[in-house]
Amino acid sequence: MDDIIDLEVEKIDKIIEKINADPEPEEIKAVEVRLWENIRKKSLQGRRTGVGITAEGDMLAALGFQYGSDESIDFSEKVHKTLAIEAYRSSVEMAKLRGAFPIFDATKEKDNPFINRIKDADPDLYQEMLSYGRRNISLLTIAPTGTTSLMTQTSSGIEPVFMASYTRRRKINPNDKDARTDMVDEIGDHWEEYQVFHHNFSTWLKVNGHDPKEVENMDNTSLNKLIEQSPYHKSTANDVDWVKKVKLQGTVQKWVDHSISVTVNIPEETNEEMVAQIYQTGWESGCKGITVYRDGSRSGVLVANNTKKKDSEESIIEHNAPKRPQTLEAEIVRFQNNHEKWVAVVGIFNERPYEIFTGPAEDFLFVPVWLEKAWVIKEKNEGGRSQYNLQYKDKDGYKVTIEGLSRSFNPEYWNYAKLISGVLRHGMPLPYVVDMVNNLHLNDESLNTWKNGVVRALKKYIPDGTAPSQNICPECGEGALIYEEGCLNCKSCGHTKCG
What we know:
The chain has helices at residues 2-21, 26-46, 56-62, 70-98, 113-121, 123-132, 146-152, 199-207, 212-216, 220-229, 242-253, 272-285, 411-425, 430-438, 445-459, and strands at residues 165-172, 183-184, 190-197, 263-266, 291-294, 327-337, 340-349, 352-360, 373-380, 386-393, 399-402, 481-484, 487-490, 496-497. The protein is an alpha+beta fold and 499 residues long. It folds into 4 domains: 2-46; 47-161 and 232-293, Anaerobic Ribonucleotide-triphosphate Reductase Large Chain (Alpha-Beta Barrel), CATH 3.20.70.20; 168-217, no CATH class; 327-461, no CATH class. A 6-stranded antiparallel β-sheet has the order 8-7-6-9-10-11. The protein has a 3-stranded antiparallel β-sheet with strand order 1-3-2. Strands 12-13-14 form a 3-stranded antiparallel β-sheet, with no helix packed on it. Helix 1 (2-21) packs antiparallel against helix 2, helix 4 (70-98) runs parallel beside helix 6 (123-132) and helix 5 crosses helix 6 (123-132). The longest helix has 29 residues, at 70-98. The radius of gyration is 29 Å and the shape is globular. The protein starts with a helix and ends with a strand.
């Protein structure tokens, strides 16, 4: 890892060389040059690295410890204490051969709690550090390790196992022979679902005489009873004691000089007092940072009428859509759809989509390509029928009105668009509208293309941080998907999917 710092600096030198060779004036390039020169300077001054671990949850289970128990916390502390001392010993040994990091100053660290823990645990090592310094200013971290843990088929970082048994999804081509679609996601991709056991839970099954293939066919009651017999009982993300999990993190943090990536997942019904207790425990335990995710806390962004009766039974609330003004502000949205250029006209009412019409750009030739804002005017034509006209200001400020917006779109597209517009103006949350459109079963190929275009246009208006209606990450299986700039991103493992 110390060598990697030098390799990174080589890349920084090439970046600086490239910027200096660029044709822009020096005053324009100056800010960027100073930025990279400062990054280079700081990289070499401290030579910071981040040795970490993964699979702590599996280790504790393999030793028969319940995650978060006093025994598991004591053992984890011994592991990370050993790792910290040996990492620092290695850095001192490198300092003997390569020299200490340039800004090493033992007097500035004499009151550092972390260094003093090293001093108390290994006085001889501390004396060598005073004599030779260290090669690295700090050395340890515990990253999310989402992809790494998937590759190693282990639990992630110091997190507990997500679930001993869960459903995973595999993306499929619905046109393939024998393909089975169990779910269609927010952007129209098709997925097959299948039962998965956590890798080391499968190992436990085999060691204890259970055939994983037979267990796959068990009903949920029998499977849960089997999980209760395993070391993963009360040790998964959904059922671990949240406060004790934070205590474990705080104990480990004492032996990690950088920070630790941990998310405390709690149910939707968790009250504020429990959330406060989790944060309070994190502070008292010495955590540098902590993330609490309450299930469903993001999905409420757009749900205004999602109320429940006192007996916990959900009710259907009817309400009238707001009356359409004669003139409605509209946005012109252009996007790629199946390698074709498409245009959508989205009527906006109180900063929310009220109606949408979309189709191929080649059918929309009478609107200039630079146009982004317009008005959709609804009025009666000479025959007394309702007609939608598009009006916009040209570059000279003159209003241009184009009558008969409907003639720019396929008649069948237009009728489906009116149906979806009715759903929009009656207040269905946008993630659910997107899901509904995705799941329309349309036999005509051109209609399916149109359906994908509607989805791409509407996702632009879903606020960042909103959870999708079906919130399970296809990569890590956690319910941590959110919309960000129209893309679905997982806040747990980093998986992303854009339309």
